[in-house]
Amino acid sequence: MAKSINDAATTAFKTMLKYKASAQQHCIFVEVQEHFSTQICSSCEEIPDSAPKGVKDLGVREWVCSSCGAVHDRDVNAAMNILRFGRESLVPKVAQESPHYSRVSGLVAGGCQLGTRLR
User: Fold this and answer.
1) Which of 52, 59, 65, 110 has the most crowded CB, counting CB atoms within 10 A?
2) Contact indicator for 116, 27 with CB cutoff of 8 Å
3) What is the sign, positive or negative, of the torsion defined by CA atoms of 5, 87, 111, 41?
4) How many CB atoms are located within 10 Å of the residue 85 CB?
5) What is the phi-psi region of residue 81: left when phi exceeds 0, alpha when psi lies from -120 to 50, beta otherwise?
6) SS3 (DSSP) at 95
7) pLDDT for the residue numbered 1
8) Tally of CB atoms within 10 A around 97
9) 111: DSSP letter
10) Mean per-residue pLDDT for 9-30?
11) Residue 67, class by beta-carbon neighbours within 10 Å (0-12 exposed, 13-18 middle, 19+ buried)?
12) How far apart are CA 78 and CA 21, in angstroms?
């Protein structure tokens, strides 16, 4: 029951965010998959052996990348990866929908400003 309520709340939030983004001028809503966002190193973009994996490693809040040596806080690392995923998926969509967008200068959560028009 709790899981279905959580899914409904998440779906409602995404629906409202998508509506707000489409109602605002120059806003684009892009949903990204956050799979492996806590395991991928935000510095070298690899999944090292030292990354926390599975349910048994949920208590691991800080880890060191065995590939590049970067120290990561689990939540900050995931946020940086999700931001990168969003920016990577946003650029092709912006170019497809509006040819006068030359690049994207910002991606802010909450639908306030997802991209800035630059000529």
Assistant:
1) 65
2) no
3) positive
4) 17
5) alpha
6) helix
7) 57
8) 9
9) S
10) 82
11) middle
12) 23
Q: Which residues contact 30 (CB under 8 A, 6 or more apart)?
A: 86, 89, 90, 93, 114
Q: Which tokens hold the place of 35?
A: 């799979």
- Phi then psi dihedrals of residue 81, to 5 deg: -65, -40
Q: Domain segments of the chain: what residues?
A: 2-97
Contacts of 69 (CB under 8 A, 6+ apart): none
**What is the band of 6 on the pLDDT scale with cuts at 50, 70, 90?**
low
Q: What percent of the chain has pLDDT over 90?
A: 33
Q: Are 93 and 85 in contact (CB under 8 A)?
A: no
Mean per-residue pLDDT for 73-80?
Answer: 93
Q: Which two tokens stand for residue 9?
A: 């709340």
Mean pLDDT of 2-29: 79
117 has a pLDDT exceeding 50: no
Q: Dihedral, CA atoms, 77, 45, 32, 99, nearest 10 degrees?
A: 120
Between CA 49 and CA 59 the distance in angstroms is: 17
Smallest CA-to-CA distance from 91 within 113, 106, 71 is with 106
